[in-house]
C-alpha cells in the first residue's frame, strides 16, 4: 500500500507585479492557510517519507510555512514537471517515485492536482469526498489517497481510495471564500 498526499499551494498574491507567473508569491491569507494546514497535518499525525514539489515560488513559500506549522522540515525534491502539469505528466512523476517512499507529499497546482484526484479515485458514488473535490480543490487543500500498489510504477486511474480531503476553511472559517 502506498499513500499519496496532494497539497495545493496556498493563495498567491495577484497584486504583486511579478514578470512571470512562476515567481508569484503568497499573500497573507495564503501564509495563514499554509501554517494552519501544517498544524493540521501534525495533529493528524500525517507522515511523509518524501516530498516532491513544483519549484514555483508560491509552492516553495507554501511548503516553508507549512513545515513551520508541522514542526519538522522535510527537504523537498523539486520537480519542474509538476509546475502547471497535466495529469499524464503527474502520473509520470508518481511512477518515477522511489519505492522506498511509502508515503509521499506532492505539492503543486490546479487544475492538475484536482484532475489527478478525480482520475485516481473511481467515480462510483462511494466517495462523497470525491464529490467535494469535483466541486473545487481550493488553495492549500490536502487530499490523502491510499493506493493498493507495491510499486509507484503501478499507479493508474481508478485505483485509489480518498481517505480524507481537508480545506483550510474546514479548519478556520476565516480562510474560506471571500475572506482576505
From TrEMBL:
| Pfam families, per database record | His_Phos_1 (PF00300)
Question: Could you identify this protein by its name?
Answer: Phosphohistidine phosphatase
- InterPro entries of this UniProt entry? His_Pase_superF_clade-1, His_PPase_superfam
Q: Which SUPFAM superfamilies match?
A: Phosphoglycerate mutase-like (SSF53254)
Amino acid at each position: 500500500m502506498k499513500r499519496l498526499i496532494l497539497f495545493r499551494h496556498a493563495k498567491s498574491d495577484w497584486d504583486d507585479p511579478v514578470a512571470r507567473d512562476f515567481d508569484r508569491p503568497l499573500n497573507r491569507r495564503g501564509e495563514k492557510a499554509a501554517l494552519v494546514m501544517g498544524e493540521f497535518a501534525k495533529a493528524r499525525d500525517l507522515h511523509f517519507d518524501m516530498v516532491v514539489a513544483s519549484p514555483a515560488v508560491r509552492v516553495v513559500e507554501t511548503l516553508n510555512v507549512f513545515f513551520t506549522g508541522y514542526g519538522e522540515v522535510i527537504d523537498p525534491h523539486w520537480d519542474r514537471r509538476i509546475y502547471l502539469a497535466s495529469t499524464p505528466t503527474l502520473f509520470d512523476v508518481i511512477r518515477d517515485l522511489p519505492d522506498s517512499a511509502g508515503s509521499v507529499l506532492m505539492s503543486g497546482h490546479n487544475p492538475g492536482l484536482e484532475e489527478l484526484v478525480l482520475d485516481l479515485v473511481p467515480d462510483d458514488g462511494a466517495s462523497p469526498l470525491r464529490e467535494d473535490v469535483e466541486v473545487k480543490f481550493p488553495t492549500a487543500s490536502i487530499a490523502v489517497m491510499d493506493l493498493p500498489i507495491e510499486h509507484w510504477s503501478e499507479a493508474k486511474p481508478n485505483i485509489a481510495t480518498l481517505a480524507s480531503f481537508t480545506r483550510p476553511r474546514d479548519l478556520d472559517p476565516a480562510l474560506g471564500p471571500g475572506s482576505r
